[in-house]
Amino acid sequence: MNLTGGKISGTVLLTGVTGGLGAELLPRLLRRHPDCEVAALTRGGTPRQAQDRLEAALDFARLGPEERARVSLLHGDVSHPRFGLSDADWRALASRVGRVFHLAASVDFDLPLAESRAANVDSAREVLAFCGEAARGMRDFRLNYVSTAYVSGRRRGRLMEDELYLGQTFCNGYEQSKFEAEQLVRQAAARLPLTIYRPSQIIGESSEGRIRKFFGYYEFLKLAERGRMPVLPADPLARPDLVPADYVCEAMLHFDADPGAVGRCYHLTAGLERSLSFERIFSQMYRELAARRLDGKGPAKPRMFRPEELEWMASPEELRRFHLSPLKLLLRTYRAYLESERDFDCEATQASLARAGIALPDIESALWLSAGYALGARFGQTGRAGAARSGAARQPA
C-alpha cells in the first residue's frame, strides 16, 4: 500500500458494499484513488448469489467497465471468524490490504439484542483482528469505521464527539450493539491507526436523491402515498437529524487522507440548526404527493400528535384506522425517534469539511429530491420527469 499526495495505490477492503452507504462510497473511492483496487466483502449463500448482490451494487453505483474491473468479489461474511475465509486466503488478503472501510452493519431496529450483537459487534471484532494482521506489513495502514450518532442512546442535551458511555440506556438492540462495537474500536485505537464516523439518519444523495436502501423516512412516505397513514405520530416541533449519503461519503474520504484524523471520532450529522421539524418534513411529503397527481390532489395530510398523546387526542375513527394500519408497526419501531430530537455536536467537523470544500447540502432540497426518487424508483409511480412534464414538479416551499 502506497499513499502519495493523498492517493491510495493498492488494495482497499470494503465491507457493506451492497448497503445504502457502501454503494455511494464505492464510486467515489475508485475515482478519488484511480490506482487502487477494491476487495468487496459480500455475503451470499453461494458465490453466484454473492456475485449477483455485488453486481446490483455496481449497477447502482453506475460504474463503467474499467472501474468494474478494479472491484473484485470477496465471498464471505464479515461477522464470521476470519470472514469465513480459509486461513491461507485470510492471510493473503491481509498481506495486500492497506485500507479498510468497514460499513457493514445490521440496521434492523427490531432484532433481538443477541442477533444485533452477532451482526454488529462480532463484525467489528473480526475486522479489528484482520486489521491487526494487515497493519503489521503496511506502513500507511488505516481503518475507517462507521458507527452511528445514536450510540448516544436515550441521552439528551449536547452530545459530543469525544463521548461514548455516560450511563445511557438504548432505544433498541441496534443502538446498543453499535455502542458495544464502538467500544471495541476505541480500545483498539491504541494499537491501530483508525478513524470513527458517526452519521445520523442517512437520506438520498443530494444531487439526484438516489438511495439504495429504503427505510426510516421512506417507510412513512410509502404509507402516505398509499393512504395508509391515518394519523402522524410525531412531535411536530422536533427536528430529526437527516444527512445526505454523499456528504457522509465525501467526509469519510477527506478524513481518510488526513493524518490528523487518526484516533478521532466525527459526527457526520446536520445539527439542530440545519434540521427540519417533523411538521415541515411531513408537510413537504404531502405536497410532493399532491404534486405528482395530474389534478394536484394527493392524499390529505392527517392530524399530527405526539406519540404519547395519540390515544387520548385522536378521534375514535382515527384510532380505529390507526390500529388497522401498518403505521402501528412502524410506530413500535421508530417511536423513540419521533417523539424527541438529538443535539449532536458537529460544528467543528462541519467547519473543517467546509474548509476542504465539502459543505453540508441543503437538507430540504435533498429530502425533496430523495422523496421523488423513492416514489419513482421504488413505489411504482412515474418518475419526477413525468411529473415535470405535467407541470406538477416544483421545488420545496
UniProtKB/TrEMBL annotation:
Organism domain of life: Bacteria
| Gene3D superfamilies (alphabetical) | NAD(P)-binding Rossmann-like Domain
Q: What is this protein called?
A: SDR family oxidoreductase
Leader sequence segment:
none
**InterPro entries, alphabetized:** FAR, FAR_NAD-bd, NAD(P)-bd_dom_sf
Q: Where is the Thioester reductase (TE) domain?
A: 14-252
* Stretches of the chain forming a coiled coil according to its record: none
